[in-house]
């Protein structure tokens, strides 16, 4: 293993035409790390694969952890991204057209996939869709569009404009799909249109 700032590395090779530098495994069988002139990086490697074809390629297992010695923060604003914020265990993958994935809208230990999704509650998961929102904890939206969960421990599997309301006791509810349905107080909505 190599540790440090890289100043002591002496066995880096120059690959030639693509102007890349690489470090081979001790036995010379594969490239351990490659960085080319345009900043493309490959970590790990396979026999016959020596030049990265995307910005970052990883062959083998990948572990990403927080480091208390380095400051980190959630990337704010518009953009397509694959973002892991280790300090609060927040994972966001997809596109945000505004502030949807900013720190204030990301719950601890939450996951938000899709377009303009918000998983604001702790332990909440949005696995895809378009403009889906969870504002409370322990809830899941698996897809659809414009679905909202405000009541804890609830699930919306899909559909459009479905809403789990906030109840006095905040009891779990489920909406399986449909359009413009509403649920609260331990109710289950199988689908349909405007079921209350």
Structure description:
Helices cover 0% and strands 29% of the residues. The protein is an all-beta fold. The strands form 3 sheets. An 8-stranded mixed beta sheet has the order 6-7-8-10-12-14-16-18, with no helix packed on it. A hairpin with a 4-residue loop joins strand 6 (79-85) and strand 7. The N and C termini lie far apart (61 Å).
Q: Give the biggest beta sheet.
A: 8 strands, mixed
**Low-confidence blocks of residues:** none
- How do the strands of the widest beta sheet line up side by side? 6-7-8-10-12-14-16-18
Helix content: under 10%
Order of helices and strands: EEEEEEEEEEEEEEEEEE
How would you summarize the topology of this molecule?
Layout: E1 13-14, E2 21-24, E3 31-35, E4 41-43, E5 56-58, E6 79-85, E7 90-96, E8 111-115, E9 118-119, E10 125-126, E11 133-134, E12 140-141, E13 148-149, E14 155-156, E15 163-164, E16 174-175, E17 182-183, E18 188-189
Parallel strand pairs: 4-5, 7-8, 8-10, 9-11, 10-12, 11-13, 12-14, 13-15, 14-16, 15-17, 16-18
Antiparallel strand pairs: 1-2, 2-3, 3-4, 6-7
